[in-house]
Hints:
By secondary structure, this protein is of the alpha+beta class.
Amino acid sequence: MFEKILIANRGEIACRVARTCKRLGIAVVAVYSDADANAPHVRMADEAVRIGPPPVKDSYLSMDAVIAAAKQTGARAIHPGYGLLSEKEAFCRAVNDAGIVFIGPRPEALDAFGDKIKAREVAKRVGVSPPPGTDGPISADNVEFATREAERIGLPILVKAAGGGGGIGMQIVEDLGKLPRALTACSDRGKSAFGDARVYLERYMRAPKHIEVQILADTHGNVVALGERECSVQRRHQKIVEESPSPAPFFQGEAGEAKRKDLFEQAKRIVRSVGYVGAGTVEFVASGDGEIFFLEVNARLQVEHCVTEMVWGIDLVEQQIRVAAGERLAPEVLAAEARGHSIEARVYAEDPAKKFAPQPGRIAKLVWAPAGGDLRIETGVEEGSEVTPFYDPMIAKIVASGPSRAAAIARLDEALALTTLELVGPAGPAATNLPFLRQVLASEAFVGGRYDTLFAEALAKEKR
Length: 464
């Protein structure tokens, strides 16, 4: 087991990883930008190293600075968290070349899944179908070819950046006349965000559901699927509320359970084919009647991993660390069973009434509901913290569980009701999505489990 781990991240995920390290008796090294000098994740650490000014490109995305911090402090391993450098093949290779262990997949897996076009090919090779789309990248300048491909695939289509994730570089096209602009916009966004201007086309499923399977794999050939998560409450293709198991009608009954098990086997086949190691998520898109297609693999820990942890009773961060140290997945992990239901709500400094626009400001007052065995509060801020425009405006994740879905919804709603959050921006009081989250939980579509990825934005418009 490692004696010291550097966490190459910030905010709530840095705090989350640090808690598991401390429970395992592992010393923690934090890195921070000037904007985070007094952040909770820095104070939690045994050592902390400044790596640059606030912009992420000059600090948290600086591979050289992060690796230098690990060498300086003698950290034997680096946990990348999620986002930032977590899925960068070049970072993984640089860490390994420095004689440090990267707590995550091998570079070859990051290469296969970091490119969505390659990921589609991996899935097809093992008999798992992605949505109909182009067989390779398309140049944003080759409008004539792109138009022919769009006609072949059938409208509506989704123009997608080949690299990255998080809903960045994606646009729905329902009219071929708007295709050229979408190609240019997605290509430019992909180049800006991921250094990759390539795009491709994929059929867009109307009112789809977003289902993902959590996997764990060790270096000894063991792979386990720890259930699925329903992640269809989204805005701008980014998740707000996640739950496990999925309440989708097509997962109910004996036929539904057989579909669920088949989905798990598909996910395991995909990751096995590239020798995957560590925690990861295989993402799928589903129609209302249960037609399911492969989307991509997120080769890292997901923001919503806590939902799985509460249902399966497994610390995924601990498993990541143990696998990276060469241990086998324990028998109790391989034979684990799900119990009850769990739901996570992401609390953001954003205004749902203004198309979920971020709301930078200072947290003037913050009181959480009392946490316990059926409630987790995952955060990296505190009263007095600044929500800056430099980073994602997520303030916290509130995760509730219960013996049934109805009990989990009630517990989460109670926790949201007991939360006091006052944000002050440059011009006065600023909005958060806290009231909107309660509207989601109370809505008929959510309670009935019949919501889709269009639901949240439609609800926000309705409540304006």
